[in-house]
Structures are given as structure tokens and as C-alpha cells.
Amino acid sequence: MPYRTMKGGHVPIRMWTDPADVETVALDQLRNVAGLPWVHGVAVMPDVHYGKGATVGSVIAMRDAVAPAAVGVDIGCGMTAVKSSLTVEDLPDDLSRLRAKIEKAVPVGRGAHKTPIDPSAIPGLKERGWYDFWQRYDELAPVARSRRGKATSQLGTLGSGNHFLEVCADDEGSVWIVLHSGSRNIGKELAEHHIEAAMRLPHNQDLPDRDLAVFINGTRKMEEYRRDLFWAQDYARRNRAVMMALTQNVVTRFFAGKRVRWDDVISCHHNYVAEEVYDGVELLVTRKGAIRAGDGDLGIIPGSMATGTYIVRGLGNEQAFNSASHGAGRRMSRNQAKRSFTVDDLIEQTRGVECRKDSGVIDEIPGAYKDIESVIEAQSDLVEVVAHLRQLICVKG
């Protein structure tokens, strides 16, 4: 669908959804960010909804500035997926044992590895540069210094909330692994530290929303933020790579007689900052709840615990700053979902999926999310569908 334009304070807001379907508080957030003097453009994805600090499903392109709250506190959160040579005919009828083995290999919730992961000991893990990566930890903001032990033990862990690890099947019957996670506690600590630092800066005191406080290029605070931001984005990517390798090894051992083979891994951030050029201008592009969808870029757009996931290829639409949605997007808050649904509703809505079916994940029930098919249809000029996956196993914290 062609985008719609909503008037903003400084630049127009391009929307790949009907503004009438967006919460008033989210529209207010978008207007506030569009009124910032550093903003070059704002694009809004069809999964848009209200978020803390800045709107989820928004792409903000700024000149010489960046708002840390517009990245979110889970810096580098994103998706990873890989297709296997297995088919659904290879799977047992009861998937609970495979789910248990995955949960044993990859800690969930607030869990961590009892012994920090040694990446060199994980078969098939292709990530390199681990020594230099951890050396850079000592350069991070002082708030991170006492948390190194936690950061190392949480590497290769899932977390909670909307994070998940799934075994899926595509429409041709091929089996995939899909996971969603970010930079864990260390990313959150760094994000909150810099958001608070930005709010204290003099040039941010008269903003309509203090959550939109920015750092400006050429300042020490900006350089410190960029250093920590890009390290946390790297941590998130490596965290997903470790979890994916651990899960691939579980599946390979579980189906030892099948000689499992794997395609190349697809990976994409959806809470991050990138340096990109549009209209001949060098910009800092913040995607909060959005993936890069440049021409040919492979991406992952999930629905919910039982409504499927789409593997997509970007079409390179510069009006959207080469972006697409990061998922279906919530249609109700977590608290509203807990008030609206019961465990029986969760059991019914996740029928056929091997997953948790208890009160601890009611806020993640499929009914709390927008319709993923409608979200995909609304961005047909941003991405093309490569594969549609359905959940068989869903692991959540």
C-alpha cells in the first residue's frame, strides 16, 4: 500500500498504516519527535504502537544527533533464523523432549549459564573476534564495570518478555529455528545510563518530551554513547549467534541419524542505530521496532506465539528509509492482556504448539498482538515474502 502522510512539527510523518488505527498517545509521540530540529524524516511501520520513550515501529532519521530513548533499553534486540535439511516428517509426534533439551542448553528468563560460554568450544559457531570484543568492555561507561561477570554469564541466554526461541516449519515442510533476543541486562544498564545523561544536558531542557533528549555530534557525550551503543549492538548479535549455534547442536544431536545440514543464518537488529545516507545527507537512522529492508536484505518479521513468522526480502524503499516492521506489534498492553485473557484462552490460542501454557505468559498470548497477515500486506512496497513459517515449538522465559 502507498504510505500516508501525517503532519509533524518539523517534518511530515510517513505512515504505512492508517493513523486512525494508532493510539492517541503513540501519535503524540510521533508528532513530538517530528518536531525536533535535528530530524530529517520519520517513517512509521504497520506494527506501530505506543512505547516507553519513543514509539515502537518508528524509524527516525536525524542529522548530527541521536535520541537514546528512540533506540529502546534493549539495544540491538533482533531476530535470527536458519533453515535446516529436516522436514516435518522427520519430527516425532511428541515434541516435549526436544523442547526440554533446548531449554536445558539455552537459559531463559533471568537465567544465566553457570559457567560462562567459551565460544571456541561451540561446534559450528562462526563468530570471530571474541578477544577484541571483550577487550572493548573495559572502555565502556563506568556503570558497566561491576557487571562484567553477569554480562559474560548471560551471553547465550534468551531473556523473558517477548523474547522467544522456536522450531518452525515453512509451507513446504522444511524445519527452521527462529529466535528473538537482545543485549540482556548489560544493554539495559548502558541504555538507561545514557538516557539519563542525555536528559541532563542543557540543550534538552525545553523539549516537549524529555524522553526524546538527544546527544549531538562532536560532543564527548555523543562519542561515549556511540562507543557503548555499538558495543551493545555487537553483544546482542553475538548473543543470538551463540544461542543459535547451541540450538543447532541440540537439534543435530537429537536427529543424529538424519545428518542435519544448515543453510546460512539470517540475522537482523530491530532496536538499533545505523549510519546511512538519504537525499545526499549523512544521517543517523534509529530503528525502534523496525528492521532494515534495503534492496535484497533478508529479514525476519514474527507474529506471536502461534501465528507464524515471515522471512522477507527488502525492496529498498527509501521513503521508508529502507525499513520494514519488526513484527505484528501489540494491540494491547501487557496489563490489559492479563486482564482480558485466561489460561484457557492461552491453551486454545496456542493449540498445536509445544510451549508454555500457564499464567506467566498470558501477556504474550496471540490475541494481544495485531494480525500478522494484515501487517505484512500493509508493507508490500517495503518487502516481499520469501517464506512463511508456523510454530511447532515455542520456548519463552
From TrEMBL:
What parts of the sequence cross the membrane?
none
List, alphabetically, the Pfam families matched.
RtcB
What's the catalysed reaction?
a 3'-end 3'-phospho-ribonucleotide-RNA + a 5'-end dephospho-ribonucleoside-RNA + GTP = a ribonucleotidyl-ribonucleotide-RNA + GMP + diphosphate
| Entry keyword Ribosomal protein | no
Does Protein transport appear among the keywords?
A: no
**EC identifiers of the protein:** 6.5.1.8
Task: Identify which cofactors the protein needs according to its UniProt entry.
Answer: Mn(2+)
What are the record keywords, sorted?
GTP-binding, Ligase, Manganese, Metal-binding, Nucleotide-binding, RNA repair
Which named protein is this?
A: 3'-phosphate/5'-hydroxy nucleic acid ligase
Q: Upper taxonomic classification of the species?
A: Bacteria, Bacillati, Actinomycetota, Actinomycetes, Streptosporangiales
